[in-house]
Structures are given as structure tokens and as C-alpha cells.
Write a structure and sequence with these properties.
The protein has a 6-stranded mixed β-sheet, with helices on both faces. Strands 7, 8, 9, 10 and 18 form a 5-stranded mixed β-sheet that branches. Strands 13-16-17 form a 3-stranded antiparallel β-sheet, with helices on both faces. α4 crosses α5, α7 crosses α8 and α9 runs antiparallel to α10. The longest helix is centred in the middle third of the chain and has 21 residues. Helices cover 34% and strands 24% of the residues. The chain folds into 2 domains: 134 residues, Creatinase/prolidase N-terminal domain (Creatine Amidinohydrolase, Chain A, domain 1, 3-Layer(aba) Sandwich), CATH 3.40.350.10; 227 residues, Creatinase/methionine aminopeptidase superfamily (Creatine Amidinohydrolase, Alpha-Beta Complex), CATH 3.90.230. It has 10 helices and 18 strands. It is an alpha+beta fold. It binds zinc ion (2 copies). One zinc ion binds next to loops.
Length: 367
């Protein structure tokens, strides 16, 4: 990841400041996106504890298994390491770095096996989630993060342009899904996280797993796919049709498209996340399909595919420039078909939602 160490230091300083204002003693963060965000170190969680101990006064130490030290040093140069050997108790090592007093915030992805041992080691302390400290920082992307999100979205757009040229009729969803994954790779993705191919009635299940169904002429197909490039996630949905679509399919697609446009218009600085959902939902309600829009309008995206802010009823959080989120209305008609259109959008400096996915949103006729 091409960011220098000062970026991570400044993120840790801001996290420590938020920890102080919440009267926390420290944040403990194990491998995952929070750790990557705060240190630049991205590794898989394992039974050997790796844990950042960030105290409220801003001192940061990464507790790390000795054998992982070379990778940690390379990923997070300058970060203080507390190496532990195979015969040592890493929980005790982490606990010893936590200042006296007050509550300890732990990352939400910390394994229960670690947290339970920490609680037993520090029985008189209280524990709380680190998300309220870190998630609001992660929700507002800096310039390098926005560049990464734009690059991965453009890669997904290029892949979709080629997906439209695939042959669909007579092939299984799984085969098409494998082609989509290969195209994402060819267009620059490091990793493909999911390929949803929901053909015909399967499209009515929003997260349908690409399966053995053979695609036929007359099918609408929901294609939703994404992955990562330089750690940042893509997520795009387009609906295509094998051969000319029916009047009903066109009508439903049109309603979804207008709902997405209403979402874009509503997504402005200071507007509550739930009001963007409501703006899109109203369009679908008025088209008569309100009961078939069965999920929230969108989710934030960054190092994780789903993160704050969530565009959902009940979330009154105001949108702020630098936020990146999906706008993905859908209509799902059980037993018939589904339609969804999804872009990733960013709230720009002018406080306006700007699409990162710009590839054609129309109901493409495929063969
Ligand atoms: Zn998606
Ligand atoms: Zn999404």
C-alpha cells in the first residue's frame, strides 16, 4: 500500500484523541481492517495473537509473534513491536501494555478466545467496542483512499463492459460467475470477493449464490460482483437481459433506475443517511413495488465491503464529504425475477454525491 508511515501515525493520533474523549485507557485491535487502517499491517487473524495496543495518550505498540516480526516491520516501519516467543503468554504481554484505570475498547473482530482471556487477565476492567472510536474515522476517506476506491471502481466498470459481451444463454450461473471473476482479475483486481449471478427467478433473492441453474432466453440476470485492489473494495450491480425484455421487466428496471437517481439527488452534505434511503424508496413505492424493495439503500465501503455509513431507516447520521457508499435500490418479484442497480458513490468537496461507477446502467440485452 503506497502510503507513508506518517499517515498511519496521524490516524492513530486521531483514534487516541477520540479514546481520551471517551475516557478509555486504550484500544486493542487484532488483525482486520481496523488494524490495517491504523498501522498498514494487513494479515489474517490466527491463533497466535497479534494485537495493537494504542493507549489514550497515543503510544502504540504492536504485540506480535516473533515469527511474524519481519512482516510486521516491513508493513509498519517505525511502529514499536513487542515480540513474544512461542512459550510466552501473549495475552499477559498485551495486558501489561494497558495503562491503569478506565475502560478498554476492543476491535469488534477480536476473537472471543482472546477477549475472554483478556477479561480473565484484567478482571477489574470494563471492556467496550472500539467501533465508535475507529468507524467514524474510517467513514471519511482521505485523498489516497478515494483514489484507491476510484481505481478499483473503474476496474470493476471495465470488467462489466466485457461481461456484457459474454454468452449467457445455455450456460450455468456458476460458469458465468467464474468468467466474471476472471475478468475482474484481468482488469486489475487483486482479489475477487463475490460474484452474484441471479438469473430468472433466482434474481428475486438479492444475495443469490451463483449455482447450477442454466440461463435461458427471456431471463433477467442480476450481476453483482466485487473484490479488492490495493486493499480497497469494489461493489457493482447491473441487471442484464437475455434477448428482448418484457414490458414488465422494462417497467421494473425503469423504477429502479429512477430510484437510484433520486438517491443520488438526495445524497448531499448534512442530509441524514436515512433520508437518502427514503428518497429512493419513495420512487419505488410510487411505482407500486414498495413491498418488493426488501433491503436498505446502501452501505459504506472502504477497507471493508460493508462499513459505516449505512443508508437505512433509523440512521440519522448526517452525510459528510469524504464518505463513500453504495446506492443500490432493487425490486425482487418472487418466482419471477429481480432487478438491482448499484454504484459506489462519494460525497465530494462540494457536498454532492458523485458516482465512482460510471459504466452504462441501462438494461443491457445480452446473448
Ligand atoms: Zn453489491
Ligand atoms: Zn453493495
Amino acid at each position: 500500500m503506497p502510503i507513508d508511515a506518517t499517515v498511519f501515525r496521524s490516524r492513530r493520533d486521531r483514534a487516541a484523541q477520540r479514546a481520551r474523549s471517551r475516557d478509555l485507557a486504550a484500544l486493542l485491535v487484532t488483525p482486520g481492517s481496523d488494524l490495517a487502517y491504523l498501522t498498514g499491517h494487513r494479515i489474517h487473524e490466527s491463533e497466535r495473537l497479534t494485537c495493537l495496543v494504542l493507549t489514550a495518550d497515543g503510544s502504540a505498540t504492536l504485540v506480535v509473534p516473533e515469527l511474524e516480526a519481519p512482516r510486521a516491520r516491513a508493513a509498519a516501519p517505525g511502529l514499536e513491536l513487542r515480540l513474544w516467543s512461542e512459550t510466552e503468554d501473549p495475552i499477559a504481554a498485551a495486558a501489561a501494555l494497558v495503562p491503569r484505570g478506565r475502560a478498554i475498547a476492543v476491535g469488534e473482530r477480536m476473537w472471543a478466545s482472546f477477549l475472554l482471556r483478556l477479561q480473565a487477565t484484567l478482571p477489574d476492567r470494563t471492556f467496550c467496542p472500539a467501533a465508535p472510536v475507529v468507524a467514524p474515522l474510517r467513514a471519511i476517506k482521505d485523498a489516497s483512499e478515494l483514489a484507491a476506491l476510484r481505481a478499483v471502481a473503474q476496474s470493476a466498470d471495465r470488467a462489466y463492459t466485457r461481461v456484457r459481451e459474454l454468452v449467457f444463454e445455455g450456460r450455468t450461473e456458476r460458469e458465468v460467475g467464474a468468467d466474471i471473476a476472471a475478468l475482474l482479475g484481468e482488469e486489475g483486481h487483486d482479489e475477487v470477493t463475490f460474484t452474484i449471478v441471479g438469473s430468472g427467478p433466482n434474481g428475486a433473492s438479492p444475495h443469490h449464490n451463483a449455482g447450477e441453474r442454466r440461463i435461458a432466453r427471456g431471463d433477467a440476470i442480476v450481476l453483482d460482483f466485487g473484490g479488492t485492489m490495493a486493499w480497497y473494495c469494489s461493489d457493482i450491480t447491473r441487471t442484464v437481459h437475455v434477448g428482448p425484455p418484457s414490458a414488465e421487466t422494462v417497467r421494473v428496471h425503469d423504477a429502479v433506475r429512477k430510484a437510484q437517481e433520486a438517491g443520488y439527488k438526495a445524497a448531499r452534505e448534512g442530509v441524514a443517511a436515512q433520508d437518502v434511503d427514503a428518497a429512493a424508496r419513495t420512487v419505488i413505492d410510487e411505482a407500486g413495488y414498495g413491498t418488493y424493495f426488501i433491503h436498505r439503500l446502501g452501505h459504506g465501503i472502504g477497507l471493508d465491503g460493508h462499513e459505516d455509513p449505512y443508508l437505512v431507516r433509523g440512521n440519522s447520521e448526517p452525510l459528510v464529504p469524504g464518505m463513500a457508499f453504495s446506492i443500490e435500490p432493487g425490486i425482487y418479484l418472487p418466482g419471477k425475477f429481480g432487478v438491482r442497480i448499484e454504484d459506489i458513490a462519494v460525497l465530494n468537496d462540494k457536498g454532492v454525491a458523485e458516482p465512482l461507477n460510471e459504466v452504462d446502467r441501462s438494461l443491457a440485452v445480452v446473448s
